[in-house]
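User: Hi! I'm a student and our assignment asks us to look at how structure tokens line up with a sequence. Could you show me two examples?

Assistant: Happy to help. In each example below, the sequence comes first and the structure tokens follow. Example one:
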Amino acid sequence: MGKPTPLRIVDEVNVLPAVNAEVFAREAAEAGGPARLDLPEGEGAAAEAFALGGAALAAWPFEHRPPSARPTALCLTRDVLHLPGFGAILSPDGAVLRASAGEAVERWPDLSGLPGAEVVDGVTRLTLPDAIPTLDRASVFQAWGGNFNYGHFVLDCLPSLVALDEQGLLARYPPIAPPLAAWQRDLVAMAVGRPVREVKAKVVRIAAAAHATSMDHYLHGPGDLLARTRARILAAAPKPRTSGRRLYFSRRWHSMRVMVNETALETALRARGFEIVRPERLSAAEQVRMAQEAGIIVGPTGAAMTNALFAPAGATIVEIQPRNFTSQWVWAAARQAGVEWRGYVCASPVDPGAVAWRHRLRRGFRFGYEVPLDDFLAFVDAAL
């Protein structure tokens, strides 16, 4: 093992010099750099129709509009280290590029979760193995959250991969990722039509690396890039066989955020012609096609609601948000699809004793909440 290196976070936008597209292309061809290309980012396809409701709506902390598009930059760096399982790109002296590690930093603000990291006297130091595989060139797109979360993979990682592909970088800088699941490989194939190299090593050296800053929570402010990613996936996905389906995305088998009366809600929705679906049981292609066939999608906030991105024009998305877990990311994804979003905010949390013990005993349980059925069903009926 080498000597521990103190880690610090630096912002790519501040440390990499901005260049124009012609210079960036030359740098990429010659494995030059460091360099940064700021991409134009419009708001994308917009459906401004929306509605907000629920007894706890007053607690919704956001403006009544979808978030504005975040800027995206492509970055070239040389002689860096990369931790594939965490997204992080860093220099040998410990400067961690912020966007590459943004999702890992949200989980471990001090970076202590990185393999080989240890906090000593308030300073996180990274000890590297003696033998580290070396790659000549590579593109990095896999943020930490994308390793396990469908939403982060679709909304953060895939747009980053598409941004690299649009600039013609993937042939010269072959994309790499930690070992992927079948659904991730399928989405990559639909987005860019080529596989990525799956790297098992915890740390690799890259002589010349490319990445996009959209790796860092692009879902909170997507723009044109996500709309273009959506278009690529829909072009490659199985074509819809029907239309107008009424879908409810169930979370009854999830124990992180538990809707204590979800069974009753599902019964009431079935009476209204809804199909109760568990998207995690479907392949990625099946989820995309299912969303394309929808006329309305209802569900609690969660990764499955990422499929709002693939709904057809004219569809409606109804998202249930607990008061203590509100967000705009589903609205932002729906906006890129040009569909209507409706958010319903309900009081939360309930007394933990109201949550079934099988949920409370599971690792990851956070809280329970209850949807006021009559009020919420009226909200859904207004959207039908």
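Example two works the same way, sequence first and then tokens:
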Amino acid sequence: MDGDEQGLVVRLYGTRIGTLRVDEAGAVRLAWTDDASERWRLRDTPLSKSLPVGVDAADAAPFFGGLLPEGLWLERLAAEVHVASNNVVGMLAEVGADLAGALSVGRAREPEEPRRLDAAELDAILSRASGFLLGGGGSALPGFQRKVTLTRRDGAWFAGRGSIPSTHILKPVDAENVALADGENFVLALAREMGLLTYESWVETIGARTVLVIERYDRRAVPGGTERIHQEDFAQALALPWGGDDKFERQNPGANLRAIAAILDRDRTIFSASEPDRERLLRYTVLNVASGNTDAHMKNFSLMHPEDGSAMLAPFYDASPLALAYEAPQGMALSIAGESQIGAITRDHLIDEAKSWGVRAARAREVIDESLEQIIEATRRVVAPASIEKHVPGYIRSQAQNLLDGQPARLRTSLPYMLMPRL
């Protein structure tokens, strides 16, 4: 196991903040260092809202387990490193050098000279895309989707495995699922038009594969390289059990939009110039409903943690028009004012949800209507590729228009959407 005799070394923004180990009762424990409390104040939360500096948490597994892939990919990772799939420390020992945010777990390693991947090596990595890479210090990213993190330099791809920060997420899809990649990229493009994200994304062919490429928002280009920016998702921030379905409200009532909103804007003052994060969260929610993104669960919303210890809502990410698919489930991962069926949600539900966060009704209506108008216009400006052109833009535009008109989001047709010639 990489680390020292007391556990794996944990570093945040280059500072050794603690060691990670499993205690006699089987709980994952983080032992804080004096360096952590010297750089940040005692009880500050630069690592996670669920893990204040200097406080001995009963179990740190919800945060650290939340850094790992999920489902089949977690099982594959555990098998390849020869540990049980609930052995958080054992898996992080092999993939902890390049993780979400500005965090690394494991022993310090000498930097390796980055090596450019040739076509065969890149194809092999994409064919196995499982949310992790072994070798060197390894890398990992949470989620059920097939994905891998790589570094892009001068148009070429590198597998840093912790020697250099990864810069992009690559999601390969099979030939019959090209529309999935195009659909996600289209929704991200709408969000970009709305000012909800600034990172780039695109779909390209790499070898024989269609790949959705997404620039990491928790990385920043700096002179001479790439800088990591810390982040955590809200399942980690709220210490929800990891490795299962607790990120969905139907499984865990504590997983809800109100819990997310309750954490936001705590650092805000009367001098803050940017839009309140709760209003920004409302814009995300409006876009999720209009775009049919029923899978917006607790791990699909995140907090950014700059070095100064503050926190803010991360950019919009990981959204697809899933409800549009033939016979697709219509239940939202997180309900809106008690309503989980996307086809029943109205603007009034959105207003009531925002009111439960502390947003004034009049302001909520302004934000919602402005967002819906932006979505409608964006669907006309963003060019959709052939695989989704007949259905996705019209579906999202119609959903948004219905909401703007005070109607339920569902389209007025008895036919399955994908069986219609065009929407």
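Here is something you could point out in your write-up. The longest helix spans residues 361-381.
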